[in-house]
## 1
Amino acid sequence: MKPMNRALSALVLVAVVTAGCVSSAPPEVMDETQRFSETIELAEPELSGSSSLEQTLEERRSTRDFTAEELPLDTLGQLFWAGQGITDDAGHRTAPSAGARYPIELYAISASTFMHYLPEGHRVEQRTDTTTLSLLSAAAFQQGFVSDAPLVLVITAVPARTEAEYGAVAHDLVNREAGHVAQNILLQATSLGLAAVPVGGFDPAEVARLLALAPGEDVLYLLPVGYPAAADGS
């Protein structure tokens, strides 16, 4: 096969596989998972807070009880920035990444919207989604608090970005990076007076299907976040 024909075939294959992933989304969300309908600029992140890092570390707890109050967009933007915000002109981010390959992607699901964070320019692209949040608990092995939260942050990764430089060890590196990102978000949530909990118990293939992610993008963590309904945690 000639090089041009091989390239064309590869492009067609990618298009077909990607379309297949979207078409495998549940029928009730099909109309809402075709594309992001708008992009929104986020407010500049706050670079100083009311509590010290040490105090935030002491206060961090995994809390599963949330009020129904929605989080303001500025608060969500701060959480996104804590996880993957760009912090200098060279493009470095708040969480370390092996070889600065940055395989991590961040999403947020509310009762009405599905959002994807764009670190460049500190923006989100979003689409209407009124069903996915309610379906997440079933995908998380019936952990009801997942869908009770007003917002769930989803940490995903595109391992191929890291594999290009690190080959077979990329899987471990990406998983560690997801841990860095999750801890950043959890500490930021604590400093903002929010309740949050990392959830690793879920069916990643089912969550990817619900979100209509492209092939090659893996779901690594769910982070339900909201205002606390109770003071206890673990």
Note: The two ends are 59 Å apart (CA to CA).
## 2
Amino acid sequence: MVIADRIAAIRERMAAAALRAGRESKGVALVAVSKFQPASALEAAYAAGQRLFGENRVQEAEEKKRLLGSLLQGEDALRLELIGALQSNKVRKAVAAVSRIQSIDSVELAARVGRAAQEIGLTMPVLIQVDLAGEPAKSGVPERDLLSALQVLRAAEGISLDGLMAIPPFFDNPDDVRPYFARLRALKDQGMERGLLVRGELSMGMSHDFEAAIEEGATIVRIGTAIFGERPPRETA
């Protein structure tokens, strides 16, 4: 199955999940996770109508931006978003390379991003990554600290608090992850009610559980393998 067929199939499943939840499918955005994929794969997805792409590393986002420059222009532009961990020493490069950062995992990092964005005359849209399970390998603002963090960041300049993102634990049965999705949705609702979020974006759900995520309120799903297939091996130095 080619990339265009996979995207069409995923969009059909997204629409069906939205319908089951009594939602409109246009309220859920698809981010194609293109980390480690060649530029040609992004071009194929773009030709199939895909416009949002997620990169894990700043260096790779910079390279994709260089290779795909012509597609990043105009009203119908391809957009790169950072969905992987952002190191503080890569903040300036990230702000220049991507259109949104989904992986802000601390107040300090958000402040750095804001300062870097102001230096080049931008306001960077961001999502705050929330740690829902305390897994050592995953980062994020602890769930218990989220609202106080948003309170601090609401007044920060150079960033726009678009919403929340999370990477819950992996379960073979997608239904088992629903409580985590529901908790993130509840946190988003609290943030919106208190005026702490500019928008109510909720980035959650990947290839194996995106339908459950949509049914629980996701407005962004991040899908890689189901679009591009298994990741190609990374080149080693």
Note: The mean pLDDT is 94.
## 3
Amino acid sequence: MGDFVAVLICAIIAFGIYKLFELFVRRKERMAIIERMMDNGGGSPLNGSLNVDLRMNSSNLFTSLRFGLLLLGVGLGLFIVGLLHLNYIPELNGDERWIYKEAFAFLYFASPITFGGVGLLVAYMVEKGNRSKDRSAD
């Protein structure tokens, strides 16, 4: 369990660093937009002076689906390994027990990644099917 906590803490730190960099990049983008507005006479970004496309991008529509299916896959993977861990570890001593613990440590790492990938593949298939329906409707 201690290894899982260490991996979780590392993942949280990496996510925090990513969000910090994203924050600085967005700030630079906002400053560039403000400078463009000043160069164009201080117009509103909604009146077309910045050529901003206000329509919803099709990739933004499926972000929650992707994220939801990814988390569903990770949760399902952890659930399955947890059930296996509770039901299939025999009462052994010494080296034999160590081998089982190492195998399950690997499964706790690999299973969420595998099921998360499957979740992303399902999201891709749904998105692809929806896009083909939209193109045939046009």
Note: The longest helix spans residues 95-137.
